[in-house]
Every structure is written in structure tokens, then in C-alpha cells.
Target: DUF3027 domain-containing protein
Amino acid sequence: MVDPAVRSVLADAVDLARAALDELGDGGVGAYLGVTREDECSATHRFASELPGYRGWQWAVVVAAAPDSDRVTVSELVLLPGPDALVAPEWVPWSERIRPGDLGPGDLLAPAPDDVRLVPGYMQSGDPEVDETALEIGLGRKQVMSLEGRLEAAQRWFDGEYGPGSEMAKAAPSSCRLCGFYLPLAGSLRAAFGVCGNEFAADGHVVHAEYGCGAHSDTSLPTGAGSPLYEAFDDSAVEVVELGSARSAPVESAQTESTPSDSTDEPAEPSPSEPEQTD
Ligand code: SF4
Model:
């Protein structure tokens, strides 16, 4: 396909373009695909790529000629992706690719210069409690969290695993706000967030005041719960003996002494005047 806007001297330089590719020596030069105009003095001839792994790519050869000249020269050879080429996804800067949890031991992750989550420490943070007491307690930090940063964090924690909407919180007997293991945060976030100090629960995690779990300090077990004091009596492990079929056994005789009414052959129960025989 020839672009009519291409000067004929440039459009006719197909063989020159292919010869330049042959001279390049990479091979894989396929069918001619056409020429397009770059400007008055240059045009690009395209050839299909037959290189392994480059299906859909095209060889592009830029040829040039001075305005009044018939002499054509080759300016550039390059392999470019065609409309059907398999190409890598668009590059994304690492600062946009990184996700929570990617940070490992020894990794460095500096905040961006325009990170909206931070403001200089000498500026008012927007948190009245922090601003009023910052000098007193000598925070001395170069930067502190901005109002936006704190709002973002609060929203994440609220929506997260330790927020009031989690399954654990819905099934909890009471809330963290009333739990002895609840350690409230400082600043305005104290109103809704604290850290759990229970090693058997959300230990070390920021929890919402309305979160809760079964390890709440006020949890009491239902009556009868826990380990039994004695081994349970297992009916299936006991052999049931019919008393009637074992009357002649000595042990049965001993038993029947205390139940004379069951048989007329057994010795009579001692009368109240007769002393009971004892060992
Ligand atoms: S033990 Fe449970 S209820 Fe108590 S602070 Fe921790 S998560 Fe909240």
C-alpha cells in the first residue's frame, strides 16, 4: 500500500529498504506491507517480521531524500509492534505498583515528596489535641500525619478485619471499647480506635472501638463449660449382669443378705434384738 502523499522517489525505494534489512543480518524479513509519509523528505517502508517470538511485529525502514534530489538514503531501521503484535502491558512506576504487604525486612520505602498523608511537623495537623499539646510533649518530628492521611487510615481500619462490620465483631459478646485489653490511641483517633493487647485475640492490631471478640475481658463461660472434674461414666464399657441367673454365686449370696424379701431360701434378716455380725 502506497501513501499518495509520499514522493515517488521515496515510495520507489522498496528494494533499497529491503537491502538495508538484509545487510543488518538479523533475518526474519517477510512480506512488504507498504510505505507511509513522514514528511516531505522522508518516508517509512514496512515489512512483516518473521522473527521467532515477534509475530505481528514489523520491520520499519526510514528512507530520506533532499527536496530536489533523486538520491535516497536509509536513515533508520527498527523493529516495531504492529496492530496485532503481542506486547507487554504499559509500564507502571513502582510507586504505583507497590501494594500493602509488599514491604519486607531491609526494604526502604520513602514517602513521595507530595504525599498528602503527611504535613510538616511545624504546621497545624488539624487535630486539636495534637496541635495543643505538640510543643508540650516535644514531638519534634519533621512530619506528622495530615488530616487526609488520618481520615484514610481511619477508613481503612474501619473497613478492615478489625472493624465493626467483621464477622468476629458481629458474634462478639461485647465491644473493645468496654474491654480491659483495649489500649486507646492518642489524638483524635482515640475516639474510635485503640490497640488490642490480648495475645489470644487481635494482639498488636488497631481495632475499632465497636469491634469485639470472644476473648473480651468480661467474657464468662456458660455454666458447666470447661473440663469435667471426673471422667464421664461410659455405659457401653460396663457389662450388665442379670441378678436372677447368678443367685448361687457367693457374691450374690452376700448381696442377698441385705435383700431377704427376694428369696425365701436365704437366711432371714437379723431381728432387731440380734446383733448384726460385723467384721
Ligand atoms: S480482646 Fe477482643 S474485645 Fe478485647 S480489645 Fe482485644 S479484640 Fe477487642
In short: The first helix runs from residue 8 to 11.
